[in-house]
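Entry for the shared binder. Reason: the reviewer on the internal report wants the predicted structure included alongside the sequence.
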Amino acid sequence: MRLAGAAAAVPKTIVKPSFAYEKFTPFDVDRIVGNTGVLEKREAAPGTTATDLCIAAAGPLLDRLGWARESIDAVILVTMLPDHYLPASSHRAHVELGLSPKCLVFDINLGCSGFTHGLIVLDGLMASGVIKRALLMCGEVVTGAFKPRAAELEHRSDLANALLIGDAGTAVALSNDGKQVKAARFGADGSGFQQIIVQGGGARCFISPSLFERRQEEDEIRRPIDLTLRGPQILTFAMKQVPPLLEEVLAAAEWTRDDVDSFVFHQANKFMINFLRTRMKLPAEKVPLSIEEFGNTSSASIPLTMVTRGGVHLTQPTKWMLLGFGVGLSWSGVALETDEITTVPLIEV
């Protein structure tokens, strides 16, 4: 499998942490900013979904590549918040992009490790000979759903998510005319599924007015529809799983750390990435960060970082180490050796 092209779309609205000073103490705001490293992020307008942003990224990318729409054999869309319960949001992307009816189309419900999981799935499908060209789209728009908009923020329990999480959509174009995936490893620990969770809205806590009523949850008052991130537990998980993941993928690819040109982590938060980087003895210049500008964008964060921070690595032979980890709990790593990656300028919607 070859990564032929990549594109990213973000909302036009830029939100900076200073908006929170009017409602919360500077100490609370500055502490969160210091830990997350988010200096600004993007918020989608009401009615905009992850699918919208992914479509906005995919269309110009296909045009730039010169790929005929009927040549796409598969479309996978990774998101935790689809447009509807059913059908899969990838089917809307399929029709709006004008793709062939002879196309494998489905969603993956996953967040932080969604991009690397998606690469592994499509690499397997291409190796089997089932498909020749594919789009892997990753996006998340939780503003106004699992977390409030900046203008509507009122409760201290929502502050961290409001400052950390941004909206984005990405698309990468993949083809079977190469063997760029040199190694991949993955894993899961379902015992930690409640560490990153939205309690309400599914079959165990179905849609009802009570989902939007605040109630006591541990030390905070929250709605069941709100996203819960248990930071200390997630950090412990990342410290336990990500360093061995890197070692396993390096060994499988027969690479050393020095061989790798760029280590792209899921942009969970700046503190966590820097902690992992230091522990794994990686040079700062080889670990690009996009979280300062876009926040934590879930499954979109790795391709968004590649598109916006890839620099010369997008235009020349490059060895990438891609590391996704988080919700599930899940983790996956991919050693990817690319040639030139076709991109388009960052798209604003």
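Summary line for the report: The first strand starts at residue 2 and ends at 10.
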